[in-house]
Design a protein that fits this description.
CATH architecture of the largest domain in chain A: 3-Layer(aba) Sandwich
Radius of gyration of chain A: 24 Å
Number of domains of chain B: 1
Radius of gyration of chain B: 12 Å
CATH superfamily of chain B: ACP-like
Number of strands of chain A: 26
Strand content of chain A: 15-25%
Number of helices of chain A: 19
Distance between the termini of chain B: 6 Å
Shape of chain B: globular
Number of helices of chain B: 3
Number of strands of chain B: 0
Number of domains of chain A: 3
Oligomer: heterodimer
Largest sheet of chain A: 5 strands, mixed
Strand order of the largest sheet of chain A: 11-12-13-14-17
CATH class of chain B: Mainly Alpha
CATH topology of chain B: Non-ribosomal Peptide Synthetase Peptidyl Carrier Protein, Chain A
CATH superfamily of the largest domain in chain A: ANL, N-terminal domain
Helix content of chain B: 40-55%
Chain lengths: 597, 85
């Protein structure tokens, strides 16, 4: 029977700093017994990869990669399955002086064509020369590579069968790149964040020392995809650079059986695990039908939240549902980060749980962009999660549209500076100039404000809806509609379109699974009522068939795509009458495109 | 386990799928899971779990993207059952 790697190294002191590259970090971790553990769909331990063995396997792959004769720092695309082979190949690139590009997996029925297009976009954008995946995905990868610069598509076995180079290897050095991360940008214009060795080692150290206050005895559990920054950096590379054992569950296994996450964490003694709000939400929904006995979540000291807007209510429901299993709501740690900063920028203080700032959504908030604490008589309020202060070495400024720094409680663009900012999007100078400011700051594209030096994120600036000078955050409308029965998270997109009179109006697209016309009409009335309650204004409601909305590679709803598809008439109402917007499509599309682009 | 009867399998899996489909939808081998039944990614994962539990098999995630019709799904289950026995 396979045994998981131990949580604590017997003879090797925990070391969080002093590594200038991933290879230096792995060389140290390989001196101990900790490592990566891979669990099956029902939470059974299937494979174990101590970091010592990861190093051996990476070195072997590296010699064979080197045999391909690629120039230094050429890109090697690899499908980021949650397997020992992916980890070995990722580190093999580090040893061989090549830059890995993790590629996403398709997790849905019948999405073959769209997924191949997405992969091809990334292969082109990264100018990858090699593409590697397991046997199961080979055909898909070969199809995606047609017409790209990829010269060799193969499997891990195929690579292992190639001759190794005899001489020494020249690993990526402290001043060189580390990997390319695709997590923002659309399918048609993917933008790859080039992460350097300096950035990854700086961010991993800050996360471990300041964000998590890592101590011997900590152990990580993760179902997050390894093609996403939170999965790759937070739950894979940071653990390697800090000799922490990780228990991995494939993302698909989590999606089928969310409670497998908690089962593995409980059984292996996990103390640290991160997820977006929806991960906690899925568990809370499933728990009603399951027995909690045997589940022990009392040791879980960092239940991190990040990756999307934090929804305090859903987290409170999780805490309540799992309190009988020992879950302590104070373990929640809201955080803020983005791939452009490698990963993390802020962490809320450990042991505090989700602290919210209750803000009044009146005139001050919507027109003057002031986040004022709600008084006792406030009518419309919203509780925002407070995400903590920037880690040491990192700075946050809230700026107005002219780049001027704003005081506390004034809402503006979240700008950050720190040791792990990207140097740019790979081969995309224009996209890079749009976000990297001249003074060394990065404009995150998010809107937020500071309270006692802590960050509160209110939404994405480019998605902000402005109606008659009032700022309305689309998330507010979407979440309100998502609370209706039969509506799921991600089913709703709210955005503004500009009419011929240059005035904005709100369009809300809801994916609708109701086919009965009478029930549909009733549903329409409900949604309109909710929007009216939330925004105090009318909206144009489009009940669209499921799969009408699209998502970025990191699973975030793409409102820009929803708006473009609405304007071009691709998104249509299930009732058959084309939305009135489509009739004015030509003129409006031009306006909207200029705004989106 | 003996070789599964294809018609029975179609009926059984059709029953499971029907729970994720709009009421009254007609189900046959040629029914397209996504475009005819609007089975999205969340529903797909629930469906996979139900099939795995019912038949005691693992549905390989890498094959989901290639499933177009109900018939494709039935064939996949039949193949996994065959491999198991």
């Amino acid at each position: 029977m396979v045994q998981p790697t131990p949580t604590v190294n017997t003879g090797l002191p925990l070391r969080t700093r002093g590594f200038r590259t991933l290879v230096e970090g792995l060389e140290y971790a390989a001196l101990g017994e900790t490592g990566a553990n891979f669990y099956g769909p029902r939470g059974e331990l299937e494979r174990v990869l101590p970091y010592r063995e990861l190093r051996t396997r990476a070195l072997d792959f590296a010699r064979r990669l080197a045999g391909l004769g690629l120039p230094r720092c050429e890109r090697v695309a690899v499908l980021a399955e949650t397997t020992p082979e992916f980890l070995a190949l990722f580190f093999a690139c580090q040893y061989a002086g090549l830059v890995p590009v993790p590629l996403p997996l398709a997790l849905s029925i019948g999405t073959h064509r769209a997924h191949v297009e997405r992969l091809r976009g990334m292969l082109e954008s990264s100018a990858a020369r090699v593409a590697i995946g397991s046997e199961a995905y080979l055909a898909q990868l070969e199809e995606a590579a047609v017409g790209t610069e990829v010269g060799w598509v193969g499997t891990y076995d195929g690579l292992a069968a190639r001759p190794p180079v005899a001489g020494g290897l020249a690993p990526l050095g402290p001043d060189e790149p580390c990997y390319i991360q695709y997590s923002s940008g659309s399918t048609s214009f993917p933008r790859g964040v080039l992460v350097t060795q300096a950035a990854i080692t700086a961010n991993a150290r800050a996360i471990a020392e300041d964000g998590l206050a890592l101590q011997p005895g900590d152990r990580c559990t993760s179902w997050l995809p390894l093609y996403h920054d939170m999965g790759l950096v937070g739950c894979c590379l940071t653990p390697v650079l800090n000799q922490v054992s990780v228990d991995y569950i494939a993302t698909a296994s989590f999606a089928c059986r969310p409670l497998v996450w908690l089962k593995v964490l409980s059984a292996s003694g996990g103390t640290i695990s991160f997820a977006p709000t929806f991960g906690y939400e899925l568990c809370a929904r499933r728990v009603a039908s399951r027995d909690l006995s045997g589940l022990d979540l009392a040791r879980w000291r960092v239940a991190g939240i990040g990756g999307e807007m934090i929804r305090p209510r859903a987290l409170a429901e999780f805490a309540e549902a799992f309190a009988p299993a020992g879950f302590d709501a104070r373990a929640f740690v809201p955080s803020y980060g983005l791939a452009e900063a490698t990963l993390a920028v802020t962490f809320a203080p450990l042991g505090r749980g989700v602290r919210t700032d209750l803000v009044e959504l009146g005139e001050a908030f919507e027109r003057r962009r002031l986040a004022l604490p709600a008084g006792p008589r406030a009518q419309r309020t919203r509780a925002f999660a407070i995400c903590g202060r920037p880690m040491p070495g990192y700075e946050i400024e809230i700026r107005d549209e002219h780049g001027r720094r704003l005081p506390e409680r004034r809402i503006g663009r979240v700008c950050i500076r720190g040791p792990s900012l990207m140097t740019g999007y790979f081969r995309s100078p224009q996209a890079t100039r749009d976000v990297l400011l001249e003074d060394g700051w990065l404009d995150t594209g998010d809107m937020g404000y500071l309270v006692d030096g802590e960050l509160v994120v209110t939404g994405r600036s480019k998605d902000l809806i402005i109606i008659n000078g009032r700022n309305i955050w689309p998330q507010d409308l979407e979440w309100a509609v998502e609370r209706l029965p039969g509506v799921r998270p991600g089913d709703v997109a709210a955005f503004a379109v500009t009419g011929e009179d240059e005035r904005e109006r709100i369009v809300v697209v809801v994916q609708c699974r109701i086919s009965d016309p009478a029930r549909q009409a009733e549903f329409r009335r409900e949604v309109q009522a909710v929007i009216n309650r939330q925004a105090g204004t009318e909206c144009e409601l489009v009940l669209a068939p499921p799969r009408s909305l699209t998502y970025t590679t990191s699973g975030k709803l793409s409102r820009a795509a929803a708006r473009a598809n609405y304007l071009s008439g691709v998104i249509r109402d299930v009732a058959g009458n084309a939305p009135s917007g489509a009739q004015r499509a030509a003129k409006e599309a031009a306006v909207a495109f200029a705004r989106v682009g | 386990m003996s070789k599964p009867d294809p018609d029975r399998l179609l009926a059984e899996i059709g029953e499971l799928v029907a729970r994720f489909a709009p009421p009254g939808a007609r189900l046959g081998r040629e029914t397209e899971l996504q475009s005819d039944l609007s089975i999205d990614s969340v529903a797909a994962m629930d469906l996979v779990m139900e099939i795995e539990e019912r038949y005691g098999i693992d549905v390989p995630v890498n094959e989901l993207a290639d499933l177009v019709t109900l018939g494709d799904l039935v064939d996949l289950v039949a193949r996994r059952l065959g491999e198991r026995s």
